[in-house]
Specification:
The protein has helices at 2-16, 50-53, 62-74, 86-95, 113-128, 145-150, 176-183, 189-209, 235-248, 299-302, 318-333, 336-354, 386-396, 420-438; strands spanning 29-33, 36-39, 44-47, 106-110, 132-136, 168-171, 216-221, 224-225, 231-232, 251-255, 279-282, 293-297, 364-370, 373-378, 399-400, 402-404, 409-412. The chain is an alpha/beta fold and 440 residues long. The strands form four sheets. It has a seven-stranded mixed sheet with strand order 4-12-11-10-7-5-6, with helices on both faces. A four-stranded mixed sheet has the order 1-2-3-15. The structure holds pyridoxal-5'-phosphate. Keywords: Aminotransferase, Pyridoxal phosphate, Transferase.
Amino acid sequence: MAAKQAATLAAFGTQHIGRGVARSTEHVWAAGQGSWMHSMDGKKYLDFTCGIGVTNLGHCHPKVTKAAQEQCAKIVHAQINIGYHNPAITLVEKLLPVMPDKSLDTFLFVNSGSEAVESAVKLARHATKKQNIIVMQGGFHGRTLATASMTRSKTIYSAGFGPLLSGVFATPFPYEYHYALAHGKPQSSSLSDACADDALAALRLLLKQQSAPADTAAIVLEPVLGEGGYVPASARYLRGLRDICDEHGILLIIDEVQSGFGRTGTYFAIEQANVRPDILIMAKGIANGFPLAGIASRKELMDRQTPGSMGGTYSGNAVSCAAAVACADVMQTEGILDNVKARGEQLRSGLSALQSHAKVGPLIGDIRGLGLMLGLEFSRSAPASIATKVQKAAHDRGLLLLTTSVFETMRFIPPLTISEAEMKQGVEIFGESLKAAASS
Ligand SMILES: Cc1ncc(COP(=O)(O)O)c(C=O)c1O
């Protein structure tokens, strides 16, 4: 009965929900609890997607749910142009101490990652009085018109939507696995340095040949490419970027929409390179599923903006901010970063163990990432569409996984609260799925 009802609803959805939104399953989800999602037809799935890196504290974390419920009963929409509300102010108090640099002391809250990226670009252009923006090849910044123009992870985000935002230039991202393949050498620390140096040299060339520093407002990047394949940038590269920005009066915008809020083992991934962003972009994990995003920058830059020029009707919604305050408390009190470290190591070693398996080992090209933001790229000898086949095989065995990028890559984004037993189960299912897909 429930299965029939679910199938009817899904068919109705297919008929009436725009085709531009893709789905990796046709489930109608009924509930989510911790690391698990429950479909309307009574099936249960271990969630290694977190709704694309959002429900970092697990589905419906009781403290986050309670905070949102209580705020709903107080005031839902305390519009930001009409005054302050307590959850937003409290959230700023919680965020200030965890910013990757003390200079990031002023905030703007919006509704989505894309809107936050657009706000960062507007801030950079307005503050520097310069126009051009440099992005990374493989970078993803959203689906609005400006952010689609800045996205270089797949052409589907921009194809057919032109003319796109002008003044956007792309520079190569230091993709170590591909660099090693191109050079016919195994990955090593000296090759990592060479990869970073080559990417920095390409950027310097871009600033000489295509976008003069005097016209360049900002360089925008994800410290770990998300939709571009879960590829971390080395500290050497990120420090080199900072130097180039300082040399030329260019702002460094760090997009931590996917990598932020503990996902990589530190509050923000950029901390691990000890690099100061001029503007930090946040979303997803900030409120564990409630729509909230934001930017942080220094007051001196933010205060150049004309009052009324930023924000929007729903910016910094009170319920979302209350949920975000609860998330910040959970991060502090429930040992989340320690769990990311332990479970990240468990996941990495589970995936690495598969590399020694006679049949599937040679299919695994690269295992990479930080904390619980890990990617597994298949080798060039793997069968066509292997990532999608593994994703399907995993689903059939009760594990939700996502692929990423135009290369054959799986991404692993389990909840930061995942238990040791759940991780063991997820890794086992992944191994079985890989073996099944390899022999299909
Ligand atoms: C790094 C990054 N930036 C920006 C965005 C866009 O965020 P949203 O989908 O909330 O607009 C995403 C979404 O996945 C992202 O991963």
